[in-house]
């Protein structure tokens, strides 16, 4: 069994017992028994009859947990769903603790909103249907009471942010069906279930991987380089143009294709039913961690992304860092990426959600890049982390990996204009926050760095 649990109720909330749900049997998922013990210790939840929630799938993962924290800071109640296949239940406690610290420091008397956790697989439609039913305000019928023409119950869940996806590029090359089953089949069933409950504000976790090898011909990437139907935009000199070439070529891995197909499915859904508001956020390379030091990237298994590997080298868990290729046509020969602070990415989801709920999204389906617009090479990232930590990072050069591209940098003007969002933190900020997290966790002997 899994449970939903919550932090202390907001002012004016009504306590209710914590509901229990059945979990799917997922062989890949290592379940944390502490999650089940919460049934005895869970604090009262906000009344499902009054509170409004944002549902976050994959809410204990790296970006999901940081977004959950930013939602709480912004005043939203959150309902987190996670099957713990690549995360840990204790992250929930860290989210709540960081949110409480924020409100104690900056809340000006405001109460911390609710955070609830349901340990389940978002693909388990029966468990998800039960969960959604606990957040329904009651079903309605038409004026004549015809049960056959039942109106969907109004939900207290006013928006969904969907992170629950497998995301390792190189794992996707080895296990493509795993990615298509979870990232595509699961997505289709999930949005169909949301449609049943009339929950039609949906923020989709996409990726710059949808641009494929376009980065080889475009120094920077804008949303119009990958569209799912004709889309108007303005050039740098203010000329109105229309992107008519739909689709994208050169996606180099199954993970990227699942994100492209996911966008295409959601675009078709929004075109068929404009009552949906769907936003696809294409992030580039999230790094760093929340400045509180309580949250960070901590996947199960061996990471393949650059910064988590650097961390394992710094903590002595790995002997050295492998740099895949030093013969790219870049200034120092290493690949270039748009590294963006994860807290900026999280804030991008808040900006997208606000725009969707306030009716400021210009089309039923809209994509946005989340990046800094500034590329850094792998060698630059390593040098920055060495500078922050005052430690040398042992490294070796390895062959390029299948699926890698030379450069991938965002143009994020659309998010600035339409969402009022832009990245605020630097690569140095990300490395400093990560170093301070490692210091706070006692994983190394260095000194914390002040802002």
TrEMBL record:
InterPro entries recorded: Epimerase_deHydtase (IPR001509), NAD(P)-bd_dom_sf (IPR036291)
Region spans: Disordered: 1-30
Domain NAD-dependent epimerase/dehydratase: 54-370
GO-annotated biological processes: monosaccharide metabolic process
Ranges of compositional bias, category Polar residues: 1-15
GO MF terms held by the record: UDP-glucose 4-epimerase activity
A GO cellular component annotation in the UniProt record: cytosol
Alphabetical list of PANTHER family matching this protein: UDP-GLUCOSE 4-EPIMERASE, UDP-GLUCOSE 4-EPIMERASE (EUROFUNG)
Protein name (Swiss-Prot/TrEMBL): NAD-dependent epimerase/dehydratase domain-containing protein
